[in-house]
Amino acid sequence: MRRRRFELHACAGTRLETYRTGLTMSAAEQMRAMLDQLMGTSRDGESKLSVRFTDPKVCKSFLLGCCPNEILASTRMDLGTCSRIHDVALRADYESAIKEKDYFYDIDAMEHLQSFIQDCDRKTELAKRRLAETQDELSAEVAAKANKVHELAEQIGKKLARAEELGADGLVEESMKLMEEVEDIRKQKALAEQEYRNSMPASSYQQQKLRVCEVCSAYLGIHDNDRRLADHFGGKLHLGFIKIRENLAELRKTVEERREERRKAREAELNERRRGSRDRDRSRSRERRRRSRSRDWERDRDRDRDRSSRRRSRSRSRDRDRDRRRYRDRSSERRRDRSRDRDRDRDRRRRRDSRDRDRERDRRSERRSASASNGRGDSASRD
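The structure corresponding to this sequence follows.
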């Protein structure tokens, strides 16, 4: 019967809890629920719901199959209906969508389960403190013996629950093997109980020594029989907490791996950006050097042009100076020539004038001589 209930729960999801409460579902309703789980909201060609699995109102833990409200339903710690939407069709849509895109809902689910387990662990510690206040304190030796009895009883309860589950599944040989192990542990428990009984007064031994289950916070007694232990360790509450803790451990591992991948991806992206930045810096540096060389070349070109211009200017200036000098030299030469010509003309005039004067003197002298000669002749004739 238990196996049938779990199979029905796995097939129809959360909305089929009516089977556990004694209500029945028609075959058509069960078939529709199974089709919703397998094919999603669009199994009839279009979505039946006004919300999608990405809506904030949808429980992300339910989409991953680990919502505590669903797992602990109909137990002593039933949390009631989840405040968010649970629908197996949306879960099918999500399982189909994550094949193409990662929505990181495992992080939301991990935080949800982590908060729930932390609250449960705080309640467990509170229950332990209350037991320590209400029960007589045992010596270290007696407490160790009592803990040994509890541990053996816990092993018996777990193996009995497992043996019943294997028997229900038809695995008779495995179930019988576990029952043989249970018998061996019972013998060890009997010896441990005898040692515990001998270590304390009979009146104190009759008192029920309680212990808090570390998994589900339930109280376990040292005198609990095997049936009571098997019902506890094989019960839905204890198994539900085991499933929640296993889901949390798996999610933590997955999230840690995902964070490591994201960290490596960020580092790779950062390194790529750094390489790109270095490449851009090198490109910019090359561009700056190219521009600098271009400016230097232009500056050198302008300087060469200036030098060439200055050289041409100096050359033109020298040419002009040379021309001026030549002009001056020619002018001076012409002036000297004119001066020499004037001097030659003056000398010629002077010589001519001198000759003229000499001739005139000679003529005057000749005339005087002639006049004198004529005078002497007249005198002689008068004589």
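The two ends are 216 Å apart (CA to CA).
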